[in-house]
Write a structure and sequence with these properties.
Radius of gyration: 21 Å
Number of helices: 14
Helix content: 25-40%
CATH class of the largest domain: Alpha Beta
Structural class: alpha/beta
CATH architecture of the largest domain: 3-Layer(aba) Sandwich
Mean pLDDT: 95
Shape: globular
Strand content: 15-25%
Distance between the termini: 47 Å
Low-confidence stretches: none
Number of domains: 3
C-alpha cells in the first residue's frame, strides 16, 4: 500500500486530492501549519514521515519547512501538489476547467450536471460543495475526472485533458505572471496539452479578446445568445455564462442540452460564491471569494439582480497586498459600484508579502475622494452593528474575513 504525507492539507486542492487518494486505498496522513487545519501534530508528522513513500506539499510549504528538510535528509520523494494531481489524473478521461475567473463555479456546475446524468464522475473542485461526498471532491466510479485546473505558477501544465473549458483569460497572480502577455503564454501551453480529438469550450468574447492565442480547430465558443435559457442559483450574467460553458461541454460527452439545463436549476450552491451566511439586524450577509477587480464588479452587478432596491455594502479584504497595488485603480472602480465600502486589513499569506495596511488606507481615501462612503477598520465585524435596515453586506474575501464574520453571524 502506498503511503503519503500531505504537507499543507488544509488547502482545498490538497484536502480534496487527499480524499480521492484515500478512496483509492492509499494511506494518507495530513499536516498543516495553519491553526485548526491539521489532521495530526507536527511531532506526529515527523514520526510518520520515515514510513512515507512520498511527501506531497503545497505552495505554502517552503523548502525550509522542517518536514521538507527531513524528507531531503531521509531521501523521501518530494512531490508538489500539482504533480501529484497530474499523476492521479492519468487514470481518467480528464475534463479540466480553468480560467482567471469562474473556474470553481463552472467546475461545480459541470460536476452537478454529470452527477445528475448518472455518469458518477470523479470530481475535484477548489470550493466547498456540500453535495459532494468529500465536499471538495467525489470519488465516483465513472471514467471522467472533472477537475478545477489552477493557472497559478503554471500548475495546470501538469494536466493533459481529454476536454477542457477556459472561462476567462485575465492578468492576475502578479507574483506568478508579469503581464497579460505572460499569462496568455501560459494558457497557450495549456491548450497544447489538449488531446488531439478533445473539445475546448470558451466564451466567444473571450476568444476574440486574445488574438495572439492559437486556438485548436476543435474549439467551440459560447455566445450571449446561448445563456438566455440558463438559470442557476448564483446570480449574474457571468454565472449564466459559466453555466452555459458547462452545458456545452456536457453535450460533448453525451448529455442532452435540455437535461443539462434542467440540472443547473437544481444546483445546490457553492461555498463563498454569493453564499448567504445568515442575517444580522435583519440584513442578509453574503460571502464571495472575489479577490480580483473583475470578479468584484460582476458579483456586485449580480447582487443588483437579487436586491434591486437594497443598499449594497461591500466589505473588502484584499488578498495579497501585491495584487492590491498591481490592480489598484481597477479596485477603486470595482468597489465604487457598491453604495458603501468597508475596508479591512489585507490578507497576506505567510512568507508571500508585507501587510499592505498603508495601501488599504489609501484605497479608503481614494474612494472617499471619488464621493463614495468608505471606511477602514481593524475590526472585521464592526460594520455589522451599523447596517441599515435596507442594506445587504457583501463580503469579498479570499482570506480570513469570511471565517471571522461567518462565526460572528452564526453566534448571533
Amino acid at each position: 500500500m502506498k503511503t503519503s504525507l500531505f504537507l499543507g492539507v488544509g488547502g482545498s486542492g490538497m484536502r480534496g486530492l487527499a480524499y480521492l487518494l484515500r478512496q483509492q486505498g492509499e494511506q494518507i496522513s495530513g499536516f498543516d501549519d495553519a491553526p485548526g487545519a491539521s489532521e495530526i501534530s507536527l511531532e506526529e508528522a515527523q514520526k510518520e514521515l520515515p514510513r512515507a513513500d512520498r511527501l506531497v506539499y503545497s505552495d505554502a510549504a517552503q523548502e525550509n519547512h522542517p518536514l521538507r528538510i527531513e524528507a531531503k535528509r531521509a531521501g523521501i520523494r518530494e512531490v508538489p501538489y500539482q504533480k501529484a494531481l497530474g499523476e492521479f489524473s492519468c487514470d481518467y478521461q480528464t475534463i479540466a476547467i480553468t480560467g482567471t475567473h469562474g473556474k470553481s463555479s463552472t467546475t461545480a456546475f459541470l460536476a452537478h450536471i454529470c452527477i445528475e446524468a448518472m455518469l458518477d464522475p470523479v470530481v475535484l473542485v477548489g470550493a466547498n460543495m456540500e453535495s459532494l461526498r468529500g465536499k471538495h471532491a467525489q470519488f465516483g466510479q465513472g471514467k471522467y475526472f472533472i477537475v478545477e485546473a489552477d493557472e497559478y505558477r503554471n500548475h495546470f501544465l501538469e494536466l493533459f485533458p481529454a476536454h477542457s473549458i477556459i472561462t476567462t483569460i485575465d492578468f492576475d497572480h502578479p507574483d506568478s505572471f508579469s503581464s497579460l502577455q505572460d499569462t496568455e503564454k501560459a494558457y497557450q501551453k495549456f491548450i497544447s496539452h489538449l488531446a488531439p480529438d478533445g473539445l475546448l469550450v470558451i466564451p466567444e468574447h473571450e476568444k476574440m479578446r486574445h488574438p495572439s492565442i492559437v486556438f485548436p480547430q476543435q474549439t467551440t465558443t459560447v455566445s450571449d445568445k446561448d445563456i438566455i435559457d440558463i438559470q442557476t442559483s448564483l446570480p449574474g450574467k457571468h454565472m449564466r455564462m459559466n453555466g452555459a460553458l458547462a452545458v456545452k461541454l456536457a453535450e460533448k460527452i453525451g448529455i442532452p442540452r435540455a437535461n443539462a439545463i434542467a440540472s443547473l436549476k437544481t444546483f445546490p450552491g457553492l461555498s463563498r460564491r454569493f453564499e448567504l451566511l445568515g442575517t444580522y439586524n435583519g440584513c442578509d450577509i453574503r460571502s464571495d471569494y472575489g479577490h480580483h477587480p473583475a470578479e468584484i464588479s460582476t458579483t456586485i452587478e449580480g447582487a443588483r439582480e437579487v436586491y434591486p432596491t437594497a443598499r449594497i455594502v461591500a466589505v473588502f479584504e484584499a488578498h495579497m497586498p501585491l495584487r492590491l497595488r498591481t490592480f489598484y485603480s481597477d479596485f477603486v472602480n470595482a468597489l465604487s459600484l457598491a453604495d458603501e465600502i468597508v475596508i479591512v486589513p489585507p490578507f497576506a499569506p505567510t512568507g508571500r508579502d508585507d501587510n499592505g495596511v498603508d495601501d488599504a488606507i489609501q484605497l479608503k481615501n481614494d474612494l472617499l475622494r471619488a464621493g463614495k462612503p468608505a471606511q477602514y477598520t481593524e475590526d472585521s465585524t464592526e460594520f455589522l452593528h451599523h447596517l441599515q435596515s435596507d442594506s445587504i453586506a457583501l463580503l469579498f474575501s479570499a482570506g480570513a474575513l469570511d471565517a471571522t464574520v461567518r462565526n460572528f453571524v452564526k453566534k448571533g
